[in-house]
Structures
1.
Amino acid sequence: MNAVCPGPVETPVLGDFEESMGKENLDALAAFLGRHADPADIAGPVLFLAGPESAWINGHALVADGGINGAVLTGMIPPPEI
């Protein structure tokens, strides 16, 4: 089993994330990255993990967040306050 862990994506559920994470936090992430992801940005990683190219990848959580996780881990941006 594999998983894709996206960052904020421009879908109807984004409003729920704004409520739980804070609109200010999500706006700051969009400003840092230039935008939120769109569904096509996440479709590629999903298709990869569902396809034959990933046949030997198992038990992996693929982060597809435009670099948010890396920026937080390296201290480039502070972690969002939830």
Note: The chain has a mean pLDDT of 93.
2.
Amino acid sequence: MRLVIVTGMSGAGKSSALKMLEDAGYFCVDNLPIQLIYKFVQLTYNGTEKFDKVALGVDIRSGQALEELDMILERLKSENYPYEILFLDAGDEVLVKRYKETRRIHPLSGTGRVEQGIESERERLEFIKRKADIIIDTSQLLIRELKTQIDKIYTLNEKYHNFFITILSFGFKYGIPMDSDLVFDVRFLPNPFYDQTLKYQTGNDQPVRDYVMNSNMAGAFLNKLEDMIAFLIPNYIIEGKNQLVISIGCTGGKHRSVTLANELAARIGVLEYGLKVEHRDIEKDARR
């Protein structure tokens, strides 16, 4: 039997992840009292009704009883009941925004500020995050992208690293993305904008891709960037970082940056980290 304990920050997507696991054939139980977890695990492993896949939702709603979870997990481990912990996380600013958009009250904020509730929750969940087998940061993920990650790990049984990379193309004339960790300027490359046959196409179109990549500078830049990213990621992971936003910009964010973002994604996709490509400004100033 495969037992997954699903937990994480309120607003980070735990409920959505449980629904996805349920759709994948898992028997799901959410917010079971902490004191009943040990008995529940015994029944699912040793009971007359056999379960192949079980997901158990645990979060801050357990109140003070959450402090007992650490002891229960140690007991399960000592008695050879295997389990995995999936921890859903997101940046504080993202969580605040989600709460404000949905007008929900954070479980620990009461009549106070959402930020204070998030800070308190993060402190109380730190012990289980340290034990987590999988940490998924949903700050940059759409629901369908989260589903893709859940399916890879718990349906297709693919290897997953607790590190997610977003490669983002953008136009400098619209501003540098605020959540960027690394920013690269590719305006030194030949610009397809000045070719009338390519002006209204984008880096997603083959003619533009060929135009950009036919420059020797594009290949040399990608080689150096790929080497640097391969060097940086393991060191970021050692320092506890679990996501990386690589922003690649050109003037308008439609041609060169889109091409280079796609090419970089194709190269580092083999590293088996979570990965998505986003083209922020590709539709701006589109021809009507």
Note: Residues 164-279 form one domain.
3.
Amino acid sequence: MSLAPVSTTTHSLAGIETPCLILDEDRMLHNIARLKTRLARLGVPLRPHLKTAKSIPAARAVMDSAAGPAAVSTLQEAEVFAAAGVTDILYAVGVAPQKLDRVAALRRRGVDLSVVLDSVEQAAAVTAMARMTNDRIPVLIEIDCDGHRAGVGADDPLLVEIGRALHQGGAELRGVMAHAGESYSCRSVAALEQAAEQERAAAVACAEVLRSAGLPCPVVSVGSTPTAHFARRLDGVTEVRAGVFMMFDLVMAGIGVCAVADIALSVLATVIGHRADRGWTFIDAGWMALSRDRGTAKQPIDQGYGIVCDIDGRPYPDLIVTETNQEHGIIAVRPGSTAPQAALPVGTKVRILPNHACATGAQHDRYHVIAAGSDAVRQWERFRGW
């Protein structure tokens, strides 16, 4: 894979083949500045999660330096970013023992790669690799702050057991990490603030338990895009992780973390036909381009498979992608709306705002990057895989 970060073309969006992924650079930079400014006021640095961006130039736009820090969700992300000079990386998914060879290989290259786990079995595998390679692999213990997924709690004897197994077994117990996954179900500012405080308190409590047991815990890492934007205090926290905030999406807008106008990612598509008797307009972007994600279906406003905008990114009133096939999308007025059907002749270019930026981005191998006031379009390479 080429690591050349940027190529420039003279094409405007009107001349680009569809479907393709569009990134509004100005919106992305605004979203980055907004969160960094907020966290600076709270006195805690950002460790950006690059799982949404999956792009070297996008990573460079959000990291504090070319070396990081960064969080990733796959070892392929770690490998690609490491090749581009990122050396401070947290692999923020529970590590599988079979992947420790790749972890060790990255660390031999000088990458300060830390891993995450929440079981004695994983700890045993990490310490075995640490002894074999004579490398104290750094580890963060995953904390369960809301019952959403994995992790251990402050009152669980397993926390100290895992900590001792790591500390005494040859690995480096670097700290704890929590992710408030249930914050994605919040529907009010009060609920988001409560989720953020619950996340903070759980991680800090676990850190104190480890320290009381005579174990080191220098890092207390928390984060999700909703809680990062609604935490009122971060006492005891050493870093915040967040990722989708760079692009935002309709799920985040539905939670109340951003406005629709903040969404930096869209899919450019072309109108290819109509069924006037059903009020349908067909586009050349189906679930292969938009993804099957229906993350807004459980929210107060169901956005179908995405909001339909004109080529400049302005939403049409109540126009959404209501259905998708593999390579066809169906545009129609939102059910229950009295808005008129927009006149979109065959050949019209439209942009679809995604439900889930990570899922939609994963369908594409590059961004077509635009900036306000210019019709020049740059391409940034994305990567996929594990």
Note: Residues 137 and 171 are 5 Å apart (CA to CA).
